[in-house]
Amino acid sequence: MKKLSLHSQHGFTLLDLxxxxxxxxxxxxxxFPSFYEPRRLExxxxxxxxxxxxxxxxxxxxxxxxxxVTFPRLSEPFDISRSVSYPLLPFFxxxxxxxxxxxxxxxxxxxxxxxxxxxxxxxxxGYSGTKEFQVSVSTSMPE
Length: 143
Description:
By secondary structure, the protein is α+β, with helices and mostly antiparallel strands. It has one domain. It contains two helices and four strands. It has helices at residues 14-65, 71-74; strands at residues 100-102, 105-111, 115-122, 133-138. Strands 1-2-3-4 form a four-stranded antiparallel sheet, with helices on one face.
């Protein structure tokens, strides 16, 4: 007959499990910030490019229609007299305040006396982005 001792049992002790969990949490804590940095940089570049695109679309609209356009109208078809009608910026879904979110940023516009100002503010500062962007478009009509 074999005698069972405490040292012949198989498995992990509670101390082994606690140490493993502690080591994994330290490694995860060091690794997570490095995952956020590329996403933050991508969100900032996307916001800056989108503001430039909005300014270009606004200039095109003012040249064609002789008036400025708001965010809700940018998602409508541009010209129904053409054979192909398309929205200028089809991914805009403005909220009740005329703002929309895209790529971790909140985009808004303000009508000024001599033009329009477009803004991009990070939704979660530090995670979705750290920079705020602004583009101004003059509403003076070409003569």
